[in-house]
Design brief:
The protein is mostly helical. Helix content is 78%, strand content 0%. Keywords: Membrane, Transmembrane, Transmembrane helix. This is CNNM transmembrane domain-containing protein.
Amino acid sequence: MRKILRQSFRWAVIISMVTAILSMIFNSVSASFLGGLSWQGGLLVVLMIILVGVFFDMLGIAATAAREPPFHAMASRKVPGAQHAIGILRKADQFANFCNDVIGDISGIISGAAGFAVVGTLVLTLDLSGSRWWLETLAVGAISALTVGGKALGKTFSIQYSNEIIFRLGQVFYILEERFHIRLFSVKTRKKRKRKRGVFRAPRTD
């Protein structure tokens, strides 16, 4: 029990720091992109941010819905990516936490802020200062609808094809490890001890 709590607390601290760093990076990058774009270009950036959130939400759901046994048969046949898929599933809680909570929540926050920036650019470009309030309200509603609707579709797809999604992701991690030597997941194989035949220990005598 204490070991589980210790590991959970350590993961919570690490993922909180990672979230803070990534949110600052993504916010700076999106702000720099939006600064020199028209409102049409800013709208495309907002849609891309929403798609990123939906995509990572699908990966997190697939990791929790997929099953490990089929990948053991594939790993025994040395299928590239199968071993990495097993690594993902054995850390499905952490992987889903990163995809759904970290990337998903950051995307939601940044898409909302980017939406307000797009509305500001639109108001200045078309001189719609009197309509700013309802444009911002419309932008918030549209972003929320696209995010929730996209995740609803993504959940259905990721649950239905969870094993296929995790296998493809395992192949991506396999390529990263083989070509670029970037290891994200490692699976420890459990080796059973084999008792040597014909070896007997003499009884202890006090």
